[in-house]
Amino acid sequence: MRVLITGAAGMIGRKLTARLVADRKLASKAITALDLHDIVPADRPKLDGAEVKIHTGDLADEGDAAKLVAARPDVVFHLAGVVSGEAEANFEKGYRVNLDGTRMLFEAIRQAGHAPRVVFTSSIAVFGAPFPDVIPDEFHLTPMTSYGTEKMMGEALLADYTRRGFFDGIGIRLPTICVRPGKPNKAASSFFSGIIREPLAGQEAILPVPRTVLHTHASPRSAVNFLIHAAGLDGEKVGPRRNLTMPGVAVTVGGQIESLTRVAGEKFAALIREEPDPTIWAIVQNWPTQFNAKRARELGFRAEDNFDDIVRAHIEDELGGKLPDL
Amino acid sequence: MRVLITGAAGMIGRKLTARLVADRKLASKAITALDLHDIVPADRPKLDGAEVKIHTGDLADEGDAAKLVAARPDVVFHLAGVVSGEAEANFEKGYRVNLDGTRMLFEAIRQAGHAPRVVFTSSIAVFGAPFPDVIPDEFHLTPMTSYGTEKMMGEALLADYTRRGFFDGIGIRLPTICVRPGKPNKAASSFFSGIIREPLAGQEAILPVPRTVLHTHASPRSAVNFLIHAAGLDGEKVGPRRNLTMPGVAVTVGGQIESLTRVAGEKFAALIREEPDPTIWAIVQNWPTQFNAKRARELGFRAEDNFDDIVRAHIEDELGGKLPDL
Questions:
Q1: Which residues in B lie closer than 8 A to residue A152 (C-beta atoms)?
Q2: Which chain A residue is nearest to residue B136, measuring alpha carbons?
Q3: Domains of chain B (ranges, CATH numbers)
Q4: How far apart are the CA of A219 and the nearest CA of chain B, in angstroms?
Q5: Of A38, A156, A203, B57, which one has the greatest count of Cβ atoms within 10 A?
Q6: Are the C-beta atoms of B143 and B129 separated by less than 8 Å?
Q7: pLDDT, tens only, B21-40
Q8: What is the pLDDT of residues B210-236, one digit of tens each?
Q9: Predicted-complex ipTM score
Q10: Catalytic one among B106, B147, B167, B191?
Q11: Binary contact (A240, B138; C-beta < 8 A)
Q12: Which residues of A touch B149 (CB under 8 A)?
C-alpha cells in the first residue's frame, strides 16, 4: 500500500505521518511506500521496509501533481491548503492553493486512471449564518469566507470525480481543532486552544469572549483518527454524498474552563484572564455552534465524548503526560 | 449603460438581445452600447444611437474575457455554457466552458475593478435527489451531474466575488424552459417541450413517460423577464445569498396536455403518441418536481401562473399567433 500525504509538513500532516509510521499499516494493509508532499520539506520519518519520499512543490504549478501521482498511490490524503485568515487576506493565494491546487491534484489522479481512495480535509467554514441550534447533515452551504467557498468547491469536485469513478473520495469537514499545539496566532478562534494550552504551559491566557459562547471541538488526535477511518471506509456504504460533517464535543467556553479545572486544577484555570474583545466576539457570533454529524457517527467516525478527554489528550500528546509546577 | 451578453448566440441570448433592442433601456437607463459574445458570431441587431459589437471567442482562453470587459460594461449577462448532456458526455469540455469560462470572466471583471452588476444563469441541476415534495430556498446542493456541479461552483464564486465587492452578482436558477423553440434534441427533458411544440406545428410528438409526471416550467419569455428583473434588482435587498431559485409553473404532463387541448383544441392534443421509454422515465424520476421560490417571488420575479399561458406564449412568440390547419 502506497500512501501520499499533501500538506505533510503541517500540524495535522505531521501527526498523521507519525501515526502511520507507528501503525505501519493503513486500512489493514502494510504500508510499503510513503510520499510526503508540501511546499517545504517534511521531516523524513523512519519506516522500516518502506520507501519514504519527501517531495517539495506547489500543487498549483503545472506538472507538480502529475509527478506526485505517477507512482499511483493507493490512498491520497489531501491536507494541503492555506488557512481561513490567509485566504481572506490574500484572495489570489487562497484560490490558487485551495481551489487550483486541489483541482490540479484531482485532475492528475483522474489522468493517472487508477481510482485511488482520496481523503480531503474540508471544514465547517462551508456553513454560513444564520444557523439552527444544531446543524443537520443536510444543511445548505452558504460560506461567508473565501476559505469556506474554496472548501465548498473542493467538496463539489470530490463528489463529481467520485460519481464519475475517477477516484473514490471522502471529504471530512473538520470542526475547530482544539487543543492546537504551538503558539497563539491571529486567528479569531485562537483563544479556544489558548485558554487550555497556555495555562497548561504555566502561562497566562486571554479570554476575549463571554463564557457562554458554545462551540464544537475535536482534538488533533481525533482529526488523525477521522483521516485513518476515512481511508478504510467502504465507499458503497457512504453513497453519493461524499462530504461528511465530523463529530466533535460541543461545549461552552465556561465548560472548557471547568474541564481544565477538573483535569489540571484550579491553579491552572486561574491563569485565564478575561479581557472582552468586541471584534472577536462579533466574528465568533457568526460561527456555527453544534452539529448533528449523524451520518459520520453512523459510518463509525468517533470523537471525544467530553472536553475533559480533549484536555487529557493534549497533556498526553504534547506535554509527555506531565504538568508544570506552578 | 453598456451591456455585455455572453452566450449571445444561444436561444436565451438571442431572445434577451431582441428584448433589449425593443426596450432600448435596462434598469431604467438607456442602452448606449451592447457587446454580444459567443463562440460563433451572434446576429447583429439594429439599435439606433448605440454601439453594437459582435465578439467571437472562448472565455476559457487566456485574455478573451479581459478584452471583453475592457470597455467596462455596467451589466454583464453571463449565459454562456454547454448544456447538461454535453457536459456529461464530454467531461473536460464541460469543466472548461462552464467552470473555467465563468471563473475567467469573473476574474477579468475583478481585475477591471468597476464592480458591475453580473447576472449569471444557474440551473435547478444544482439540486440532487432525494427531494422533498416542494424544494425550499434553503435546500442543500448535491448535484448528480457534472453540469450541476459546475453551476454550483459558479454560484459559489458569484457569492464570494459579490461578498468581496468585486462585482454585484445575482445568480438565477432556471427551471426547465418550456416551450423551447426549435428541433427536438437528445436531452431526456426534450419531450416536455416536444409534446406542445410538435403538435402546434402539425407534427406528431412522442410522450415517453406517464402523464402523472410532475415538473416545473417557465417560458423562454419568463426566462428573459427573470434576466431583465435581475439586472435592475437592489443588491442590498437581496442580501448575501445571491443565488435564487426562480419561480415556475408546476404541472403534470397530463396537465400540460389539458392546457394544449384548452388553448389549441383536441385535434392538436391527438398528435401526442404515448410510447413509454423506461430509460427516460428512470432519469426523470430523479429530477426535482416543485420549488417554493419564496425569496425570488418576494424580490419580484414573476413567471406564468398556469401552463395555458405558457402554451399561449409559444403561439404568440414563435408561431406569429397562428395555428396550422390540421
A1: 156
A2: A140
A3: 2-174+219-245 (3.40.50.720)
A4: 28
A5: A156
A6: no
A7: 999 999 999 999 999 999 99
A8: 999 999 999 999 999 999 999 999 999
A9: 0.96
A10: B147
A11: no
A12: 156-157, 159-160
